[in-house]
Design a protein that fits this description.
Number of helices of chain B: 16
Strand content of chain B: 5-15%
CATH architecture of chain B: Alpha-Beta Barrel
Number of strands of chain B: 9
Oligomer: heterodimer
Radius of gyration of chain B: 22 Å
Shape of chain A: elongated
CATH class of chain B: Alpha Beta
Number of strands of chain A: 10
Largest sheet of chain B: 9 strands, parallel
Number of helices of chain A: 7
Shape of chain B: globular
Distance between the termini of chain A: 32 Å
Structural class of chain A: alpha/beta
Chain lengths: ~270, ~450
């Protein structure tokens, strides 16, 4: 049987097709002092590698870190086979549009500016994510939402209370609320998001959250419409907003479409 | 406190919190008594700050003062009792400065928590007891290593003056303290910030604490090439306000950062130009240089290389305090091994290229020199604009960062009041008096 992919079956590639070679690094809480300890430490690393499916495995680097820890770099061969036909991906359910088209869609569907209120909620002070999406400056070479002529952005900044966010969204007649969460200690990002979606109640704007540690498929669980993960660009967010709020359906009046209820998003 | 017969402020505070106390302004004879009592207790605190400063000098003499650049490492577990062994391990591996990152959001608390804390979000609360515990642990490891390991925390946010005082009382050695960071990045009222930064710096000056300013923040929110001159302007403002509050040049840890997009051609030359410019503008300041964060992509191998270039730029341009970059920046709080590898990186660069800056000079009219002149020119222009507008107006117009911060907006405005007739601040009286006895 070939493992070159014709059957949809592959193995990691080191320098030869199908060689299955991988590398990993880890630390064990074992000392790396005298010769006996060193031999024992390397043996411990090899045991872990074997249990992880590396056979054969080779410790190429071991270094004591203080009296109690050892750091290892291990190369080995995995016997596991990847079945490409069994890989599932969540496809992006909307096309990414150029800024001009985003503006055009908003103009024709809404006949006014689309209003976006953004914030970092809870104790989270990391505005890097929300600023990358909202600020004119943008991210990864794409201008932020403030750059779009037909989008009005209200950036509330960091450590915004949920009640303040709800009130401001109502006062600004927000079409969409963007919330960024970076801090994940004790799952703060999840509890903050649930608290936020609950606070908005049923007649709410489109709720979008983003952050590096969210599971993009958990939108429904968290009571929001969309989750964006690491590496999301402003253009993707803008395109999603028009997909959800300014649909290109000839003859449809009003322009407000009920937000999609299904989760899912770009593959992280 | 006098008329109620309270032994100390804490007992009074407890009763006040339960509503048992009625406050009124003392006048006449009572007023004099209150002034005396306040002055006495402030003098007691300042004597302790002076004693701690002398203790630092004793510790430095008994151990040793590490050569610059000092290697600055962060711990941030949220639990002071986890932070302590991590900090000690980092010191043993070569860290000269330990910074305990504060819990997210502490800057917006208008009070300082009390006691040892084991719960924090992305950091550990700054409390007097946490300061004391960590300083004691670092004293132990300093004696063990024969090298004084410095401790850093954050005098910023709404409790800038309070935390500065605690730092002085518990012998912290460096404090993050910026004249405008709270305004721009935390939306704290500008007037309040300028008042608070002044007092906190007077305390730092007295305590012999080195401040670290936060110019790196301008480069993480704006493009590091376009915004290079805003760093210089902010450094000049921080220097001005710092000196005005009594800080010596050796206490001005002006900040900047290595945040230029590595995809840009000549990015390393641009970094060298910026770093060398700052070095030459502030020859006597212990400059704090911060590693790449914005362009750390998750490719840890590329990140390790970028950190090595940061270290190289730092040693070539003679930066004083190097915050050590983590190849896993933005992925997780550093693993033990991330920190170990980061230290291996900087040790190699220092060993291999520590004297490189003495051997190579930029071409007088070459790319690096021209870029430095351009940034300085833009900084002078911006200072001119600020000068004609007034600083508060410039901040309100969004000159710094992309945010507009009007003087009558922001958090903590309700704490700003005009000085009344008979205003008395015993701490300012002591701190602003000529203080020959603490000089050397």
């Amino acid at each position: 049987m070939s493992l070159t992919g014709t059957m949809g079956l592959v193995r990691p590639y080191g320098d030869t097709t199908g060689d299955g070679r991988v590398q990993l690094s880890f630390t064990l809480p074992v000392p790396f002092g005298d010769e006996t300890q060193r031999a024992r430490a390397e043996g411990a690393a090899l045991q872990l590698a074997a249990k992880m499916g590396l056979d054969p495995a080779m410790v190429v680097h071991a270094k004591g870190m203080g009296p109690d820890f050892t750091f290892f770099i291990v190369y080995g061969r995995v016997s596991h086979i990847v079945d490409l036909s069994a890989v599932t991906v969540t496809e992006r359910e909307f096309p990414v549009l150029p800024a001009a088209e985003v503006n055009l869609r908003i103009r024709s569907a809404l006949g006014r500016k689309l209003v976006v209120v953004g914030a970092c909620i809870g104790t989270d002070a990391h505005t890097v994510g929300i600023d990358a999406i909202l600020n004119v400056k943008g991210h990864a070479g794409e201008k932020g939402l403030e750059y779009y002529r037909e989008i009005r952005v209200v950036n509330m900044g960091s450590q915004v209370g949920v009640a303040d966010l709800v009130a401001r969204a109502a006062a600004e007649h927000a079409d969409a609320v963007l919330v960024s969460q970076v801090v994940t200690q004790r799952d703060a990002h999840l509890s903050n998001t649930r608290e936020m979606s609950a606070a908005f109640g049923p007649r709410r704007p489109l709720l979008v959250v983003g952050g590096p540690r969210f599971d993009p498929s958990a939108a429904h669980d968290l009571g929001v419409d969309k989750i964006f993960g690491r590496g999301t660009t402003p253009g993707e967010v803008a395109s999603y907003l028009v997909h959800a709020l300014a649909p290109q359906v000839p003859g449809e009046s009003g322009g407000m479409e009920s937000p999609p209820k299904k989760g899912g998003g770009r593959t992280a | 406190m006098l008329t109620g017969g309270y032994p100390d402020l804490r007992t009074l505070a407890v009763d006040a919190a339960t509503g048992l106390v009625k406050f009124r302004l003392p006048a006449g004879h009572e007023g004099d008594g209150a002034r005396d009592a306040a002055a006495r207790s402030v003098r007691k605190g300042i004597s302790r700050i002076d004693a701690q400063r002398a203790e630092r000098d004793r510790m430095l003499a008994a151990t040793s003062n590490p050569p610059m650049p000092w290697i600055y490492l962060i711990v941030a577990t949220g639990d002071i009792y986890e932070d302590i062994p991590q900090a000690q391990a980092a010191a043993r591996e070569g860290a000269d400065v330990i910074a305990v990152i504060r819990s997210t959001g502490q800057s917006l608390l208008d009070y300082v928590p009390e006691g040892a804390t084991r719960e924090g979000y992305a950091g550990t609360y700054a409390t007097q007891e946490n300061f004391r515990l960590m300083r004691a642990a670092l004293d132990d490891v300093s004696r063990e290593l024969g090298r004084y390991v410095r401790l850093t925390n954050y005098a910023s946010g709404l409790c800038m003056p309070e935390i500065a005082s605690l730092a002085g009382l518990e012998r912290l050695d460096m404090m993050l303290n910026d004249c405008m960071y709270g305004i721009i990045f935390r939306d704290i009222n500008p007037v309040r910030t300028f008042i608070d930064q002044r007092f906190s710096r007077q305390v730092h000056a007295r305590a012999g604490i080195v401040i670290n300013t936060g110019e790196d923040n301008y480069l993480t929110t704006a493009d590091a090439v376009d915004a290079a001159h805003t760093v210089v302007v902010s450094q000049l403002l921080n220097e001005y306000f710092g000196r005005e509050a009594g800080l010596a040049d050796a206490q001005l840890g002006l900040g900047h950062a290595f945040e230029i997009n590595p995809e840009l051609p000549d990015s390393f030359l641009l970094e060298l130009a910026h770093a060398q410019l700052v070095r030459e503008l502030f020859p006597d300041a212990p400059l704090k240089y911060m590693p790449p964060t914005k362009h750390m992509t998750g490719n840890v191998f590329a990140g390790y290389l970028l950190d090595a270039f940061f270290n190289l730029c730092g040693v070539m341009t003679d930066q004083s305090i190097l915050l050590i970059g983590m190849m896993t920046e933005g992925i997780h709080t550093p693993f033990l091994s991330d920190r170990d590898l980061a230290l291996e990186n900087v040790r190699y660069v220092r060993r291999a290229a520590g004297r490189l800056g003495q051997e190579f000079r930029p071409e007088p009219d070459g790319f690096v020199a021209q870029r430095a002149r351009q940034v300085l020119g833009e900084a002078v222009d911006l200072l001119g604009t600020i000068g004609s507008q007034g600083l508060l107006n410039a901040i309100a117009e969004g000159t710094f960062g992309v945010t507009k911060r009007p003087a009558d907006g922001g958090r903590g405005l309700d704490g700003v009041v005009e000085r009344a007739e008979g205003y008395y601040n015993p701490a300012s009286d002591v701190l602003e008096a000529p203080q020959l006895e603490v000089e050397q």
